[in-house]
Write a structure and sequence with these properties.
By secondary structure, the chain is mostly helical. Helix content is 67%, strand content 0%. The longest helix is centred in the first third of the chain and has 21 residues, at 2-22. It is elongated, with a radius of gyration of 22 Å.
Length: 173
């Protein structure tokens, strides 16, 4: 009987150790970001060419290739009079976010969310939430994500819901 108790004790300790080792652990900030951030794919080649703006075509090619500083340089050379202000604000913010300049991106993305009748306003709200998250503005990021999650027209609705459901914005991150 004594050996049975010892064996049960060893089994209990091993089970507890196995549970501790295999249990899900909270993601750190970088893991959460890598798992939940969905970057904008940029304009397709065809969509960019339809604008008849060679600098935008160049900027989007550079963006899709991951050359964010070069893409931002090309984008900033586009006169505002030749392209919608919402497009310039949005993609400037997205490029800054992709370069790791989330603080600077927030300003552009905030203005992009406020462009009247812009098709990019909803996408800008999601990217703004990501910039807010990246800069530690968790209550603002949560509020922005809740707005995206509640908008059936927003292409990032499901992504926003996933971040909120996973509680990825908790302070431990």
């Amino acid at each position: 009987a004594r050996w049975g108790l010892v064996a049960a004790g060893i089994l209990l300790v091993l089970s507890a150790g196995l549970w501790l080792w295999l249990r899900p652990h909270p993601l750190d900030a970088e893991e959460a970001w890598a798992r939940y951030y969905v970057p904008d794919p940029g304009l397709t080649e065809v969509a960019a060419q339809r604008t008849n703006n060679p600098l935008l075509v160049e900027a989007m090619r550079q963006y899709r290739a991951g050359h964010y500083p070069a893409a931002l340089h090309s984008l900033r050379r586009i006169p505002a009079s030749t392209l919608g202000n919402d497009t310039l604000l949005y993609y400037t913010g997205v490029l800054l976010l992709r370069q790791g300049a989330a603080g600077a991106a927030r300003s552009y993305l905030t203005r992009a969310t406020r462009q009247p009748a812009s098709e990019l306003a909803g996408k800008a709200r999601y990217q703004l939430a990501m910039a807010q998250w990246r800069t530690g503005q968790l209550p603002q990021a949560r509020a922005s994500l809740q707005a995206v999650a509640a908008d059936p027209q927003n292409p990032y609705q499901l992504h926003a819901r996933q971040v909120l459901r996973a509680n990825a914005l908790s302070p431990r991150n």
